[in-house]
C-alpha cells in the first residue's frame, strides 16, 4: 500500500499536522517521514511568474513599442532563494511510493495557488489528490479536515480564480508601470530633481492611493462655515437641563433662508434676534409640550472578520493592519483563534452545534471565567444557532474570527499587544451570548412663546453585553446612540439627575435660567487612519462609520482580507503614502499626489473603486463557476490593450506640470 504525503504552507503548520497524525515521524532534510506517510512544507511561495525577459531577452529593456505585453502562455519559475525546498517538495510529489497527496496549504485562494504552482512546476501525474480545508489548527480540526478532505478537482474553480488574480496583477503591473514610467517618469524625476522615477501601478494599490489623495484634496478645498445655535437652560436649580432650539413647523424661522440647518443660524445677529424676541416679558418661562420615556435596546455587534478587527486594533492599540494580521496569524498558528483571513462576521450552523467546546476551553482563560459563568446561567449557548450570529449564507470560505478555547498556555509567552488582541477577540465572542444592553431614554420638548426647544437624556438601565465587551466611554456611547436612533439628543445622565428629569410632566411650566448662543463650525472630512482605510477598501471605497450599516451593505470590496494590509504596506514602502505611527493617520506624499495626477490624466478608471471592486467580484464569479476563466481573461486582455493604446496617443505632459505645481504648494521645499 502506497504512502500519503501531507504538504503544508509553512514548517510550523506542518509540525501541527505531524503532531495530530501521531505517527512515528523521523526528521529528514526538509520533510518528516514514517512508514505510512511523509509530511513536508512550502515556505510561502516556491514558484512565481517569470519576468518578460524570460520570454524574450530584448524585453528586459523597457520600450513603448513592446507594449502591451500579453503572453499566450504564461511562464513560471522556481524562486532562487527557496529552490532547495522546492526540490525537496517536488521530489516527494513524484515519489513512486506516494499514492495520495493531502494539500494542507492555507484554506483560501492564495493557499490554493501556492500548492497548484508547485504541482504544475513539478509535473505531477497519476496521484490521488485531496484538499484539506480547516478553520483552526487544533488537533480536532486538523483530523476532521483530513477525514473530510475532498478531491482536489472540486477546488479547480478556486484555483482558476487564483491564477487569474495573479495574471491580472502581473499584466496590469508590468504593462501600466512600464507604460506610465516611459511616458511620464522623466517629468516626475525632473520635477523632483531625482535621478529617475518608476511609476508603480497596481489594480488595487493605485485605487487606494486615489482614495487617500482625493480625501486630502477634499480637506484642502473645504471651507469652514460657522453656525450659531440657541440653547435654553431650563428648570429649577438641581434639575436644570439644556434644550436646543430648532426651527420646526410653527416657528417664525421655519424653512427660513437665515438657517444653516434647522438647529442653527448662519449669522450670529439672527440668533441674537431670536433670543431678544424670547427674553421679554420677564421672568422667562417655558412649558413642557411633550415628554417621551422609552427603553432602547442595543444588541451585541456581529463577530470580527479581519477588516473589522484591523480597524478595532488600529483605534485601540495604534497598530497597522499589516501588524494586526501578523499578530492574528501568530495566534492562529498557536491554535488560539480560528482562521484570520476571513470576510465573514458570523458562525456556521455546524460550528454553532459545537460551540460549547469553545466555551469550555475558555474556562482556562481566567479573565473569561466570570462571563462564562453568566453564559451557563443564561443557557444562551444552546440557542445561538437561531440568532443573527449564525448564518451559513453569509459564509464563503471561513466563518468569523473566534477563540478556539485551545492553546491558552501559549498566551503566557506572548508580548503584551498580542495578549490584548486575543482579549478583544474573546470579549467580542462572549458578547454574543449576552442579552442586549438597555438604555432608558427621556426626550423633552419645551416651548417659549411659539419656539420649541429639544432635550434628550439616557441612562444605562441594564448593562447586558457591555459586561463582557466593556461599557463604551460616555462620549462614544452618546455618539453611537445618536447614530443608531437618528436623534441628535442623547446626553448621558447620572441616575439621580435622570430620576429628577423623569419626574417632569407634560404641561408643567418651568423657569428659564438663561438663553445663550453657542457657536459651532462645520467639520472638514476626516482623514483615513489605517483601520478606517481597510474598512473603506472592504466596502468598495465607502467609509461607513456605522457598524450595523456596514454589515447590511457589505459586498465585494477592493482587494481581499488576505491582501489589504500588504497593499497599504507597499504604498508606504514606495513612499506614495505616509503613516503616522502614533495616530495611524494616513496621508499622501507629494510623489503619491503626482502619480495620482498621472493616472487621472491617462488611465483614470484605475482610480475608480467600483470598477476595481468589479474585477474582484469577477474573480469570485470564476471561483463560483458562474463565468469561465476564458471569459474573464478575454475582458482583461481588452482592458490592457485599449488602455495601453490610449496612453500611447496622449500628449499631455505640459498639462501635468500645472497639476504638480498645485500639489507642491502643500509640501515644504525639499520634502
Count of DSSP H/I helices: 23
Main sheet overview: 7 strands, mixed
What form results from the Cα inertia axes?
Answer: flat
Radius of gyration using CA atoms only? 30 Å
Contiguous low-pLDDT stretches (5 residues minimum) are: 474-489
The side-by-side strand order for the widest beta sheet comes to 2-3-4-1-7-8-9
What is the helix content? Answer: 40-55%
Strand content: 15-25%
Strand pairing plus helix content: what structural class? alpha+beta
Report the average pLDDT across residues: 92
Strand tally: 20
Kindly report how far apart the N and C termini lie: 68 Å
Q: How would you summarize the topology of this molecule?
A:
Layout: E1 3-8, H1 11-21, E2 26-28, E3 31-33, E4 37-41, E5 47-49, E6 76-78, H2 83-93, E7 98-104, H3 109-122, E8 128-131, H4 139-147, E9 150-151, H5 156-192, H6 205-221, E10 226-234, E11 241-246, E12 259-261, E13 264-265, H7 268-278, E14 285-298, H8 306-317, H9 321-333, H10 349-353, H11 355-361, H12 369-378, H13 416-431, E15 437-448, E16 451-462, H14 466-469, H15 474-485, E17 491-492, H16 495-502, E18 509-521, H17 530-538, H18 547-553, H19 564-573, E19 577-579, E20 586-588, H20 590-600, H21 609-623, H22 629-648, H23 653-664
Parallel strand pairs: 1-4, 1-7, 7-8, 16-17
Antiparallel strand pairs: 2-3, 3-4, 5-6, 8-9, 10-11, 10-18, 11-16, 12-13, 14-15, 14-18, 15-16, 19-20
Helix pairs in contact: 1-4, 2-3, 3-5, 5-20, 5-21, 5-22, 6-20, 8-9, 8-17, 9-13, 9-19, 20-23
